[in-house]
Each structure stands twice: as C-alpha cells, then as structure tokens.
Amino acid sequence: MTSWQEYLDKEGHPPVWPYPVNYEKEQEIETDVLVLGGGIAGCWAAISAARKGVKVALVEKSATIRSGAGGPGVDHWNDCCNNPLSKVNPDEWAQRLANNSGGYTCGGVAREVQCRENYDALIELENMGGKVRDTEDKYKGAEGRDDKTKFMISPRYNYNHETNTVIRVWGSTFKAALRKEALRLGVKIYDRVMATGLLNEGGVQGARVVGAMGVNNRTGEFMIFKSKATILCMAGPGSIWVFNTELAGITTFRSRAMSGDGQVMAYKAGAELTMMEKTGTLNLGTGFKHNWYGGAGDASYENVRIVDANGKALPVPYEGWGSNLGQMARGGAPGKPPWEVVRDGVLKGEYALPFYGDFPSMPKVESDVTWGLMIGEEAICRIIVDTYNASGFDPRRDQLQNYQLIEGRSMPQWRSIDGAGARGGILIDDWNMRTSLEGLYATGDQLPASGDHNLAATTGRYSGRKAADYVKQIAQGKIDKAQIAAEKARVYDPIKKNEGMDWKELHAGVARTMQYFCSEYKTESLLKMGLDSLNEIAENYVPRLFALDPHKLMCSLESLSTLEYSRMIIEASLARKASSKFLTFDRIDYPQQDPPEWNKFLTLKLENNKVKIGERPLGFWGNMKENYEKYNQDYTGVYKGK
After folding, report:
1. Is residue 445 part of a domain?
2. What's the pLDDT score for residue 100?
3. Residues 512 and 572 in one domain
4. 391-443 confidence digits (pLDDT tens)
C-alpha cells in the first residue's frame, strides 16, 4: 500500500478525487420507515421494521458492514436476564439499572426493554448467523462455560456467578450477519450518506417529523428522504474537549466521525433532550496515553492477575476478581479504594513498577479465552491482538505491561461524553420509544445515559417494530421546500470557497473553549463566557469554513455538529443551579450536592429557535413492569425463526 507521503513524492500532487462530484444535485427517496444510522441499533431497527412488512430505508455515513461503535465486534453481552442460566428477575434487574446513578438514566422504557428482550435478541441474532456459543468446544473447561448450553458466562462480570447475566460472545460476527439479514428483508441501505437535518411537516419546528436530508460524502449529492416515521440510531459525540487528529488513537474510545449529529438534528427539529449537563472524565487513549486496551488492564482483561515488577500480586477489589486496575479505579472495598491502596504501596516501595498482566500464570484455556475471545472480539482490539501477535507476543510465555498507574488519570479538564452512561441525549416520551415529536423515535446512543452493545440492539429492535405499527396507520406528511432550500444552503456553504478555515481548526477551537469554560470548574460567569465564545465561533469563523471535496465537507459538517452540541451542554449546565455527584456535575457557585429540589431531569429544546428549559420528575416513566406489559401484549417472546 502506498502512503500519502509516498504518493506525493512520486506524483507531485495529491490524489485526484476518485468519484464524480454532483454538489446540490437532488435525489428524493420515499419510504415508510427511515432509519438514520447503520450501527448496531440502526441495523436492528431496520430488520425489526422490515419484518412487519413495511418499506424501510437505512442511511449510514460510513459502510454498514462494519460501521458504528459495535461494528468491529463486542465481547460481552450484558444484562441478559432471560437466558437459561440467569439467576435474576428481569423486571427487578431493570429497576435496579434504572435506579443506578440516582435515577439519572436513559429511562425505564429502555431498561425494561433491555432486560425483557435481551435474550430474545441474542437468539434471533444467532439464527441470523451471529456466533454466541462455544459450539466447537474450543474453550471447554474454562470457568463459566456451561457444557449443556455451551454459553460462556463471564465469571467476574457476574460477581462469581451470582447473576449469570453477562455472556461472552463472538461479536465480530454480528454486524455482517445483521447487514445480510437487512438486505434479505429488502431494506434499502444508503451507505456513505451523512444525514444532516430532519424535515418537519410544513417546515415548522416542533411539528411532526416527515423525513430527513443528507449529503453523499463521496459524490456530494443532496439526498431527500420522505418517511412516515424516522428512527434516530446514530452515535453520540466523541471528541468535544480534546481533539488532535495527528496523535495516534485521535482522542477517545470512539471514532471522531461520531459527532453527535443525531442529537443535534433532533434539537434543531424541536425535540426535547435531557441530561445534557452530564459528562465523565476522559480515561481512554488520547495520543498522550495508551488506548484503554493497549496494555493489560480493564474490561476484557477481567481475569488477568496484575503483578508488579518482582512478580508480587496486587490486591483484588472484590473476591474472585483478577486484580486489574480498571476495576480498582471504580471502587471496591470499604475504606480506601484499592486503586489508592496500590498507589500508596508504590510510593512506599511495597510494589515495584511497572506492572504486568501475568498471562503465563493462567491455565492455558483461561489465557486463550482472554486473548483469543475477549480481547480478540472487542470492537477496538482486533488490531491490538494482530499487532502484538505479529510482533511475537505469546500469552503462554509473555507478560503484558500495564500502563494505567504510570500514565495516571486524565486531567480533569479533559472531559468526555462518549462513555456508556456519561452523556445526555434525546428524551423518550412514551412506551413506544417515541421522542417528544410525532413520527420521531430514538434508540441506542441517542438516549441519555445510554448503555452498551446490548442496549443498542434491544432498543433498536423494539423501536423498529413500534415505528412499523405507527406507519400502518398514517399517511405521508408534507415536506416544505423552503426548509430543504435552507438546509442545502447551510450544507454547501463550505464548498463555495477554496480558502479559509479548515474543519480541524474549527473543531480544535471548540475543544479549547470547552476546556477553558465548561470542564472541571463551572460557574455562572465561566459558562456564559463559554457560550459567548462558541457564539463568536459560529458568527465569525463558521462563515470562513471551507472544504475541497465531499469527504472534507462531511468533516466540516461534523465539526458544526460538535459546535452545536457544545452549546447544548453549556445551556444545560447554566440551567442546573446545583451540583450532582450522579451527573458528575460540579458548580463552584452552587456546591451543594444533589439538594432534594434539584433531583429532577432538566429538559432542553428549541421553540421558535429560542432555548426553552423544562423539567421531568425522576422515574417519570411510571411502573416499568406494568407499562411494558400494557404496551406489548402482542409480543411473542423468543424469536422462532425466519
């Protein structure tokens, strides 16, 4: 493969754009259900709707075969409460998940659906061709493997088999199986098309959603999709506070292309969002640090014991856990957290750095499970396994260095909203997973404090069938030509010039503003200064944004989404005049943590293009078990076949 520099050295000029460019040329598509985003949630939504016999179109700005946070794979299938080995009640488990973080979660609807239908989705996926069991007995004898069902229960994620709700899976097989099934069912897939805006009936903000608009990021063609129902299945943003494309791993766990487009489109259309003030700390690869999985540590290394440079084992946070530092960082024993115990031990000379994951001390089958299945199947880890193996790493012989304590935690001004549970999102207004706008549904990462792979799968699956039922009862809405013209003018503005500000510079400016004015330190004056700074960027620098080809046009539009998402965060942060440990939200000028009068959801929406703040009580979704059963009387349970 020729590198970019090698091509320049040989040819003396950049490559010629390889596709025909048709800026502003329109293509109009009409469908019943429009799915925006072809990741895990989007594929499931499309399949579920198509099974109901309605016409479905799926729009994905990358390639559906591997796109999305879970596209490359997944190793854990969590909260699988109805599996035959489970020891929990699905309704009780859903309530427990909804109560986590003080009740600030994606809501009772998503959690109840997740726990009620999780196993059904897994079996349906298996029937499509996804691999979920050790059918070849490759890992026979491994802890947690059930010889009857051949499921691989994750022992430590289930707290030594107290719950049996987490199953190890071969997630790299999932996305290809989903795409194949969607095509078999007649779903029309539009790859390399970036959705940029929703269509309101009559062009009125807050009115029924009747479709969407977008741009082909290879040809530049403008796409107009007319639909009876639209399901937002896109990703949250990944790099708001820290941005540098020249450093390996860009900035976060997820692709920079995940820019919060869905939440921004919903907001501009008049939908309500909530928990937009919630953030987390950036604990993943930033270019200055190793990627989360780059050394033996958290998550998929769950059963690897960590030892110091002299072979001394580190303490474990829970009985039965491997002593991995990622789990230590989350808490553990009474008194001082294990993470701090280890750090104090290093400073006192009780433990010698560096630390290592002690693969050779593990039974071979356990080592094979961790390296071949867990690390090998996780979304971002295949390249790690392949690279290390090619370099001669052998888990039966070699230890793998752990970098977490040496590199430390990220600076507190390096915030993040791309981790599970760390972001705000679109408010779900009823038990059909509809938003506050008629005709618009939201799933997966579009939800506030969303979960992981299985929540995306189950909520996508659920919303698809609900949207399909809706479209059978309603006619196509009327789109507004003026709204389309306005969106075209916005979308194509960067290609009207050939010099000015590149998208990277704009994005970096937004990130620096968020570091300065909306990070660890939050006060009324700082937040207002931040909002002023973002408004200045919008007024003075966005008009200078330019793009030389359709791909750079897409990147420019993503940066504009990042800018708008950042304004939403600051607006919500100004509205919450209290601190909250559950939202990892600290106001210096309002230091009291979670005062009772502020234990509520704040909502954010545009009304006549003016920001309007509202509120909802915690638990506003009502009795989860009763409502689920009320609105799903026709649900037949486990998927029986094609």
Report:
1. yes
2. 81
3. yes
4. 999 999 999 998 878 877 777 777 877 665 678 999 998 999 999 999 999 99
Are 65 and 90 found together in one domain?
Answer: no
Percent of the chain with pLDDT over 90: 68
Q: Scanning the structure block, which residue is given the tokens 């590149």?
A: 502
Count of domains observed in the chain: 4
Strand arrangement of the beta sheet that strand 193-200 belongs to = 26-30, 222-226, 209-216, 193-200
In-domain check, residue 294: no
Are 201 and 227 found together in one domain? yes
Handedness of CA 622, 628, 630, 632 (dihedral sign): positive
pLDDT recorded at residue 105? 86
| 285: nearest Cα among 428, 162, 217, 383 | 383
**Segments forming the whole domain that contains residue 243:** 29-71+174-279+416-471
User: Alpha-carbon distance 326 to 324, whole Å?
Assistant: 6
Same domain, 180 and 141: no
90 is written with which tokens? 């699905």
* 77 phi/psi in degrees, rounded to 5: -110, 100
Q: Where are the beta strands (DSSP E) in 252-379?
A: 273-274, 280-281, 306-307, 355-357
Q: Please report whether residue 632 resides in a domain.
A: no
Domain-located, residue 374: yes
Coil vs helix vs strand at 120: helix
In this structure, the answer to whether residues 391 and 521 fall within a common structural domain is: no
Higher pLDDT, 323 or 36: 36
Tokens 């076949």 belong to which residue?
641
Q: Record the tokens describing residue 31, joined without a space.
A: 């469908």
Q: Using an 8 Å Cβ cutoff, are 188 and 31 in contact?
A: yes
The mean pLDDT of 607-628, rounded to a whole number, is: 95
Please report, for residues 16, 520, 548, 592, the alpha-carbon distance to residue 194 in angstroms, rounded to integers and kept in the order given: 22, 33, 17, 43
Q: How many CA atoms lie less than 13 Å away from 219 in the CB half-sphere? A: 15
Residues 261, 192: one domain?
A: yes
- Please, which residues bridge with residue 87 across strands? none
Token pair for 615? 């509120």
Q: For 458-514, how does the pLDDT look when each residue is reduced to its tens digit (9 = 90+)?
A: 999 999 999 999 999 999 999 999 999 999 999 999 999 988 999 999 999 999 999
Tokens of 23: 């800026």
Identity of the amino acid at 194? M
Is 506:561 a contact under the CB 8 Å cutoff? no
Looking at the structure, tell me whether residues 148 and 265 fall in a common domain.
no
Mean pLDDT along residues 50-57: 97
CATH number of the domain within which 575 lies: 1.20.58.100
Whether residue 492 sits in one domain with residue 578 = yes
The encoded tokens of residue 553 equal 């046009």
